[in-house]
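Weekly structure sync, notes
Attendees: PL (lead), two postdocs, one rotation student
Agenda item 3: pending single-chain targets
PL asked that the sequence for the first pending target be pasted directly into the notes so everyone works from the same version. It is reproduced below exactly as submitted, 174 residues in total.
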Amino acid sequence: IDGSGFADVGDTYQLLDYHLTGGSAAIDAGTSSGAPSDDFDGEARPYNTLYDIGLDEFVDTDSDGLSDYEEELLGTNPGNTDSDGAGLTAGAGVNTPGTDPLDSDSDDDGLSDGAEVNTHSTDPLDDDSDDDGLSDGWEVANGTDPNVADAGADPDADGLTNAQEEANGTDPLD
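Predicted structure, written out during the meeting:
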């Protein structure tokens, strides 16, 4: 457990205070029979048309997979699916291990976490996914492949490797 009130459970985080988290089997699995009209936070039941089992009613205003309560704890906006503009929903930002839902570029390589996950298949926590010494952002911006170790390649046959082109600020494809 860290200071945020979350416990690391494999690749996800789980609140340890009786609040439901996204994906819980208790969401929409209850009935109105004997159910209180409000949960223990004072949120109206049911949130949708079905009741949740337990003390908490799972409320996710922006439908990003994180409850409004979780978003409040994390500092993300419960009314905005992508609080940091990274191209990942806040739920995906939390559930992609290690990424920060409040930082659009967790590894500071110039590519948003969303672009790394959804477009380039690179690691949003590693600024050099192929470990060739060239940052993912530089490789994407200059037309080389951030998933292929190609620092020693010379695609434009000008006698300079990609690593030398990067150091010189020149174009590896021209």
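Discussion points:
- The longest helix spans residues 113-120.
- Helices lie at 68-74, 90-95, 113-120, 136-141, 162-168.
Action: rotation student to compare against the earlier draft before next sync.
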